[in-house]
Amino acid sequence: MAALRGVSRLLTRRALNTVTKRGYADEMSFTFAAGNQVFYDAQSVRQVDVPSFSGSFGILPKHVPTLAVLKPGVVTVFENDGNVKKIFVSSGTVTINEDSSVQVLAEEAAPVERIDAAAARDILSKAQGELSSATTEQARAEASIAIEVGEALVKAAE
Hints:
35% strand; nine-stranded mixed sheet; alpha+beta; elongated; 37% helix
C-alpha cells in the first residue's frame, strides 16, 4: 500500500511538472480577426465556442493545444465581464497554443446581430440555383460551398 502511495505521489508530481513546463495559464488570451475587422486583440476571455469540421467545441483556459479548420457557423465568445458575443464566420482556422492563447482567423466574419435574415435567405436561394445549373465539377463544388455558407447564415440569423 505504501508503494502505491509513493507511485501516486510521483505521478502527481510529474503531472504538475508537465503542466508547469507547458506554460498553462488560468486566463486565456484571445485574438479574433478577419480580413475586414479585428474583433479581439489579445483580450482575456472566459470561453470560446467554435464550429469546426471535426465538430463544434468549447475552449477554456488550459485547453489542449489544437489546430482546427472552422466551418461556416457562429463563434461564441464568453467575455470575463459576463457578456456573450456571437460572430458568424464563413471559414477559417482556430489555433490553441500551449500558453492558453487562442487565435481565430476567419475568411469573413460579422456580428450575428448585423446579419439580415432576408438577405441570408436570398444568398442561400441564389447558391441553390447555381448548383442546379452547374455544368462542371468546379462549379458544383463552388455552389455546394456557397450553399453551406448560406445555410449557416440563415441559421445564424434566426
